[in-house]
Design a protein that fits this description.
This protein is α/β, with parallel strands linked by helices. About 40% of the residues lie in helices and about 20% in strands. It has twelve helices and twelve strands. A twelve-stranded mixed beta sheet has the order 3-4-2-1-5-12-11-6-7-10-8-9, with helices on both faces. Helix 1 links the parallel strand 1 and strand 2. The longest helix is centred in the middle third of the chain and has 19 residues. The radius of gyration is 20 Å and the shape is globular.
Length: about 325
């Protein structure tokens, strides 16, 4: 079944538009709809010397896969779209594209949404508080908790906390929050990835998983009690030392890893699959995936941007939407 995937290219000064335009030079198996400024797309295609056939999106027609160079679009106006030059006046445009994709997914116009990279600093410079896609989607979808998970071939890493200073991580992990993260992770691995009883490795917070309490007691007083208290259709193994967990001995028989904080788990995943990984938001009523990299402002309109992560994000979005049927 052909799926309708909404694409938000993200920061117009970065490589998001480039990636989409480069990707659609080849025919696609799904219907990709850009929620973007058509003038921006046309101008960037000309800068990249790429062919582009824009088609207005009509939700009342049957979904049809993109032919080579064809791109369906839902228009949004971008005031200033010069490649490589950030402009805070574009912040509203970036968020309007996101809002349109969220609304379309919630109303079943789209089967999933895939987001290109945004520039958090540029949005904040416009006077809009913005910490990231994950938190924004949680607020817009009005859910109590979401979980960030990155996935690449052979490895999925979810996070107990997301964009926090390291000094705030330990205090932010409570029995309630950790329980909720694990519940969401288990549920979405079952629902969106077809894993009836997922096997999840749980990282300790401290070095050597606390070394029996000598390097911290969070494992003894928080993580272990949570794992014992949960009654889920899953194998929860841990807490394990993060420095040895990411080895074949453990990973070969695991479906996912739960890291306690951003830079505990993601460096390993990105070392393994950077450019071929997707960022997935779990716990939402809609399906959202994203690229695993930033805006790369210096590469915009250069033709040197790698489409691998965007293609991977689209693949995961399609796979997850098929699993939810």
């Amino acid at each position: 079944m052909t799926k309708r995937i909404a694409i938000t290219p993200g920061e117009p000064a970065g490589i998001g538009p480039d990636l989409l335009l480069q990707l659609i030079q080849q025919a696609q198996q799904q219907q990709l709809i850009a929620l973007a400024c058509p003038k921006l797309l046309q101008a960037r295609a000309a800068e990249l010397n790429l062919k582009l056939k824009l088609e207005p999106f009509d939700p009342n027609t049957k979904a049809s896969a993109n032919q080579a160079t064809q791109l369906f679009y839902l228009p949004h106006d971008c005031p200033n779209s010069k490649a490589g030059k950030l402009d805070p006046s574009n912040a509203d445009y970036v968020l309007q594209c996101l809002d349109s994709a969220i609304e379309g997914c919630r109303n079943n116009v789209f089967d999933a949404m895939v987001t290109g990279p945004v520039h958090k600093g540029n949005i904040n410079d416009a006077g809009i508080s913005f910490s990231g896609h994950t938190e924004y989607l949680q607020e817009k979808c009005k859910v109590d908790k979401v979980v960030m998970m990155l996935a690449t071939e052979g490895l999925k890493v979810a996070l107990a906390t997301t964009h926090l200073p390291l000094k705030d991580v330990a205090a932010s992990i409570t029995k309630e929050s950790l329980s909720r993260v694990i519940e969401i992770l288990v549920k979405d691995l079952q629902t969106d990835f077809g894993l009836a009883k997922p096997r999840i490795l749980i990282c300790g917070l401290n070095p050597h998983a606390g070394e029996g309490g000598h390097m911290g007691r969070e494992e003894i007083e928080l993580i272990e009690p949570v794992l014992k208290s949960l009654d889920l259709q899953a194998e929860l193994i841990g807490p394990l030392p993060a420095d040895t967990l990411f080895t074949p001995k453990y990973l070969d028989n695991a479906d996912a890893v739960l890291a306690m904080y951003h830079d505990q788990g993601l460096p390993v995943l990105k070392f393994k699959g950077f450019g071929q990984a997707a960022n997935i938001t779990l716990g939402l009523p809609i399906i959202r995936t994203s690229v695993d990299h930033g805006t790369a402002i210096d590469l915009a309109a250069s033709g040197k941007a790698d489409t691998g992560s965007l293609a991977t994000a689209i693949q995961y979005a399609c796979h997850m939407s098929q699993a939810r049927i």
